[in-house]
Hints:
Blueprint: H1 14-18, E1 26-30, H2 36-45, E2 48-53, H3 56-68, E3 75-77
Parallel strand pairs: 1-2, 2-3
Amino acid sequence: MPFDCLNVVQTSGVEDFMNRFSPGPKIIDIGAGMGGPCRVLAAEYGANPVGIEFVEVNVQIGNEISRELGMPEYLRVGD
C-alpha cells in the first residue's frame, strides 16, 4: 500500500464496516501513529479522518508523508 511503508493495515472487515456509513464519514483515530490508517480510510472510502497522536515526531512524519502524497494533514498532537 503506497500510503505508509511503516504501517501494515489490516483490511479484513474494513470494507463491510465502512459501507455501513453514509459517504464521507467523520472518523477519529486515537493513537494514530503516523496516520497510515487515516490516509487509507480517506483515499479508499472517502472518510474525513482526524488522527490524534501523542508522540509529536510521529505527527510530523505522518503529516509529511501526507503532504508528499498530495493529501491533507490528518494528524494532530494530543496531550
